[in-house]
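> run fold GLPGLI family protein
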Amino acid sequence: MQSGFAAHFAPEQYAASVSQIQTETTGQVVIFAPLNSIMMKMNVFLLVALLTGVSMPGNAQVAFTDNPVYKITYGTSFNGKTPERQNKIWVFAGPQQTLLTTEKDFTGKATYPFELSMINRPANRQELFAFLNEQEAMAASDTALRTQHFELLNETKEILGYRCKKAKTVVNSNTIELWYTDQLPVKGAPTPLGQNLGLVLEQIRNGNNSIRAEKIEKQKPVLPAFLARKTLQTDLLSYRDAIWNSRFTTIPLFTNQVINFSDTSRSTGDVMRFANGTVVVKKIKIPVLDSGCNIFLDLLEQSNGDAYDRTGTVFLIPTGKKQSFLDGLKNGAKTLPVYTNGNGKNYQGVAATTDYAPPLELMRFFTPFGIKQFNHIQLKGKQWQEAVPYRQDITDFAAALNNREVYIGVFIGNYDKGGHKITARLTIHKGGPDKQQQQILPLFNTLNIMEMAGQEYATMFDNEKGLTVNFRINAPLKNAHLLYTTTGHGGWGNGDEFVPKKNTILLNGKIIFDLVPWRQDCGTYRLFNPASGNFSNGLSSSDLSRSNWCPGTVTNPFRISLGDLEAGEYTLQVTIPQGKPEGSSFSAWNVSGVLVAD
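> ok
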């Protein structure tokens, strides 16, 4: 939801609520008589009764008192420039009540959700009514008007023929200047800010963002026709949260899902469990996605018994080819296509072939050391976090999701019976700039998602050939990119987890990427890691820099520009100077690559 003034005046405690009102043929508006606690419990029919003063159940009656009514039209500008076809702010002000709305809302041209915002001057509060969709409506009261404070200045100027005085305040570090007049018998403002000063005819934020009255008209109050529905009373925080969540579509993936290691792990309901319970998969229906939408993946993790930092991934299983990773989950890792490079090992399901596409990685994340489950470990001055949130923009993969039933899975590598607990969801947000959904080609994913079912670790980089993938592009691609995610592993002093190693990628023999992936900010996340080991030098294990990951964080993909690509055969090679094993310890590199293009 977007209102004309909300787009220019953001401070939440004074954020104006707006309304979409179906009016009578006169196009005029009712100004509300004093409201009381009855309003919070009534349906819209009862609201109409309150406004008009007709008899209501229980003989409750409120007289309609506001007359005359002034309609003030406001326009907005930024740095002196006025946007074209803007949604004008409309304020209807009476002696006791003020309605805040916009032209689009008032004339019924807005879409859900919309709000009706009234200033109840006798009670000195704002009455909020939100219509979330055709079925849901709710109400709340906001008393923030009572806490507003202004510096009254001696400056004056004329606006629309009225002498205006100046007031100033600061909201969330924004300097707000208000020009108000007392030459009219009503009070009001284009936002809830300054409602009791007089009639605010101009509001300026930080000297460059202006809301200014363009026209003042005197009208008779006329009742608009409201949708006949019940209005649920709620507290202000719940009200704001409901409006916020109604602005986007939420698709639950997993809720309090345990990911653990157990010989007795079984699929239940719509959740399929594989690899002794360390992999969970669900079939999810994704709606039609608008060209301007943004898609985000959220995941919340807590330890359910495992104290260690673990590799995690959220992945989508492509099913458009003859064989899929789902087949391997069901039938065993050995049934997947094998990649070899001469080092004597077989790597199952890691590289694309003519008949197989590897898992498309949506998010690479790492659990911290024992968050929540081990918060009983006390250190002076440390207040451990209860859960670690991960959030990532996955809009690049919209074409793989749009209007499809897809298999989405989560893996956390662990050998603990309690394991980890996660909640995950997708959120789809409309209203961004139109953009063409990209073509998507998963090329490789060496993260051994079926680790606990025998899938080989990604040790292929001990050979100079590294990982090599051959693929074909059937039609020319515009603005192609390789989304490359890489993390190094080998958890001892000389292991690749703690030793910087250059990653090199070649496309048809030409270097397109040559960089050392390294994270030096791991100490930032200390409060996620109650069970992290502590060393004699005063450092914690979770503080240490690593090969592009930290306990308790997401690892973002590198976006490698490839330009325009012609149709034809291609060879992509990834090489890394992987360290040698020491005893039973060895290094590995989890890398994934997805080709995206317009």
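Residues 247-597 form a domain with the Jelly Rolls fold (CATH 2.60.120.1570).
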